Every structure is written in structure tokens, then in C-alpha cells.
Amino acid sequence: MTFLRSSRLRSWRTGVIVLGLAAGSLLARALANSRGPRFARSHSRDIIHNASEAIISTDESQTVVLANPSAAAMFATSVDAMQGSHLSAFIHPLPTASHDASPAYFGDGAGRAGRRATDYAVTGVRASGETFPLEGSVSSTVEGDKLINTIILRDVTERQQVQEKLSRSHAQLRQLSAALQTVREEERAHIARELHDDLGQLLASLRMDLNLLQREPDAGRASAALMQGMEHNLLTAIASLRRIATNLRPRALDEGGLYFALQGLRDEFVQRHGVACALFADEAELRLDDAASTAIFRIVQEALTNIARHARASSVTMYLYRIDGQLLVSIRDDGCGIQPGDMEKAQSLGLIGMRERVWAMQGDITVSADEPPGTRIDIVLPLAAAHEPLATAPNRCETAPPHPDI
């Protein structure tokens, strides 16, 4: 009897403990569920409040409903002053095509719901009225039945200043490169004239004196042989002088213009390297000033030099023609082709020099592998109205086929 009563008492106590534990668990879970949203909202606000980047939330009317201290510091104001103010007090709206359209601040004014939108460049306004560049990302969420836009802003003043300094530095380097090219061409022209006018005339005078000596009747056989050797050496020196002077500054470029200088360059290329080369151009279209003629001649010269050194080509085709105030230059070969990364190699000084000359003339250059295998160089150079060809009879080099697509 006592044993049975004791057993029932233990069973009742065990049931009470289990029931208490279950109830406590349910109560704790209920409390956790009731506190969860409030805790999450509080935690999110703490994150926004302590974030180092400026964060602003606006409603559908672009009124600021939330701003963190970083945003207040960025615009040199306070959080209380920002909240309730219109977004236009801090960010300039983008220009719209219609005056009746509602102002947009980030692209089309609507972020992608629940996701970060594209970064936009905007202009911020501090409390003092000072403007500064901003980069902003905006995303939209729906809370209840209201649309909330969350904006993350970054002050890019320092980055923009660095970019402007880099741009100025690049522009100055290109100006320096163009000035050095001009000085180099002037020195080349001066040395070529000196060689032709002074040394060339001296060698010609020596040859005339030598011819007079050879006509003397009392010249012995040994003296005649010696004078023949001297004449041969003089002719070799004169030919070398002409070649050096032409490499420095082709006389055809000054006397006949770009068209005839390119013809001479083509003939020399064929003779020296044994590679077929066709030139399709119109003399009237290549009547340019000295600076433009020199730059284009050097570009074509460098292209042919690269072909001779690296392409292993059997034929080359060159086109030069005008369209809408622009000179289009296309050079093609059937060699081994060029790799996409070759233009960026530090050793590709020839290609870099071509590119700098083209950029100095505000032009564009494209170097690519052609089909079938080979290399194609396409250059577009803007020309001033003063460079338009004169209305004279054209002199064409080769029979030009249809212009290639560039």
C-alpha cells in the first residue's frame, strides 16, 4: 500500500516537471518570436547608424525618412536637419528632357527592388552650398504598402582630383612627345640639307676634279688605276650620302609632296626587301601641310619597317583616301599576323611610335589580325578644311580598287 502510493507520487512529480519544461519552452519560443522583428529592426538601425558610408532612405516623394551620422557629416549638417527634408536639398536632380517630368536623381530614378542598383555619378550639396562629386547606389524595398529607396553615397572628390591630375599628366606627356617629334623632324631636315648642300657639293666637286686629272695625257698606268679606284669610292660615297639624307628627310616630301614621297618609299621597300607592295592613292587627296605630310609619311614608313622585320609577308597593300574631311589609311600584309597583346608590349616601340603620332593628330589607329592570316592597320586622321585638295587634274598611283571597309 505504501509502495503503491509512493509510486503514484513519483509519477505525478515527474509529470509536473515535464509539463513545466514544455510550458517554459513554449513561452520562451513565443517571447522570442514576439521580440524577433523588433530586435532585427533595432539591429539594422544600429548597423546603419554606425556605418562608415553615408546612407539615406527616402519615401516615394523623395523626402528623407532616415539618415545616418556619416551622411550628416558628408553634407555638413545634422541627422535631425536631414530627416524630413527633401532629397533635392542634398543632391542635385538630373536634367530631364521635359520640364513637366518629375526630377530623377539616379538614372531613371527607380532602383531595382531588393537589389543594389548601378552606381551613378551625382552632385552633392553641402549645407554651405558647396557642391562636390558623389557616387551613389540606390535600391528599393516595399515596407507595408510604401516604397522606400535606400541610397548609399560615397564622396569621390579625392578620386576625381587624382583622375584629373592623371589626365593632365597624360595630356602633357603627349604634348611633350609631339614637341619632341617636331624638334626631331626639324633636326632631321636640317642635317639632311647640310649633307646635301655642303657635303654633297664637295663630293661632286672632287669627282669633277678627278675627271679632269683622268684626262691628263701624261698620267701613267698606275696613276690611272689609282684614279679609277678613287672615282669608284667617290661614287659610293655620293650614293651613301644620298641614302642617308633621304632616310633623314626625303627630298620628294619637300619637292613633290606626300604622294611622290610615298611612291619613293614603296619603290625602295620593294627593291630592298623583294616584297610586292601596291599603293592606291590620289595625289590631289594627299596635298597636305608639312606637319601632316611628315607625320603620315613616318607612320607608313614605320609600318613598312615592321612588316619587313616581323611579318614574313610576300605582299603588302596600302590605301590612302579621303572621306568627309578625314584621311583614311589602311595597310595590309599577308604575313604571320599580330597578337592582340603586342600593341602593349614595352618592346613594341615602332607600334607605340605610330600610335603616338596618330594620337598627336587627334586620330584613331587600329591594329588587328586580318583574314586570311596577316596584319591590318587602319588609321583615321581628321583634316582641317584648309587641307582640302585643289581642283586640278588628279594623278593616281596604281588603279585603285574599291575602298576597303574601315
Notes on the protein architecture:
With 406 residues, this protein is an alpha+beta fold. 49% of the residues lie in helices and 20% in strands. The chain contains 9 helices and 12 strands. The protein is elongated.
Task: Give the secondary structure arrangement, pairings included.
Layout: H1 2-50, E1 54-58, E2 64-67, H2 69-74, H3 79-82, E3 112-113, E4 120-125, E5 131-143, E6 146-155, H4 157-214, H5 221-248, H6 251-255, H7 258-273, E7 276-282, H8 290-311, E8 315-323, E9 326-333, H9 349-360, E10 364-369, E11 375-382, E12 396-397
Parallel strand pairs: 3-5, 7-8
Antiparallel strand pairs: 1-2, 1-6, 4-5, 5-6, 7-12, 8-9, 9-11, 10-11
Helix pairs in contact: 4-5, 4-9, 7-8, 8-9
Q: What brief labels describe this structure?
A:
406 residues, alpha+beta, Beta-Lactamase, 4 domains, six-stranded mixed sheet, 12 strands, disordered N terminus
The CATH architecture classification of the largest domain is 2-Layer Sandwich
Biggest sheet layout = 6 strands, mixed
The percent range for helix content is 40-55%
**Domains counted in the coordinates: how many?**
4
Radius of gyration: 41 Å
